[in-house]
Amino acid sequence: MVAGSGFEDILIEAGVCASGSINQVMSGAHYNRAIRVHQYMADAVERLLLTSFTNVKTIDHDNLSEMVSLAESPSFDKLVSVVNSASCAEFLNDYSHFKTTVREGCLGKTAQFWMMYSDCVWILLRFLEGVKENDLDMYLDSLRQLCGLMFSADHLHYARYLPVYVTTYSGDVGTSRSI
Which of 38, 43, 94, 132 has its CA 20 to 30 A from that of 17? Predict the structure, then answer.
């Protein structure tokens, strides 16, 4: 899906992956390394997006002093107070709106492509979290989201049988989900 986008060149230039192992990472042969590479790239895309957001929107740093305090000395109590603060809620709402506009193409096709890539990585990470935590709802929800990716990646057998699998097991849980 990212072949020919410069993804491999970015990884090699950043020193994340050696040129000799890039083909195995891209094909998924080195599973753990590939997951780590995708996490790094999604993090980089998110950081670039946040930088772009702060350049576009003027942010009153006095209102976000709680977030700065949390970053300087993290603790659970500070996290709870930041999450419950109105300034944090406003910041996250504005950032979410900005990400939506980027998905719609306001920063161009390149930014739109990397947002799509980041969304795909997050779907994969939620799937892995659902498996590791034995969270059936998260697992089935992420599988439902993976259906479209299987079609677009031309994995025909997964694309054909994954919707049937999701539908079958969604009914067993007792929740009504539609694909």
Answer: 132
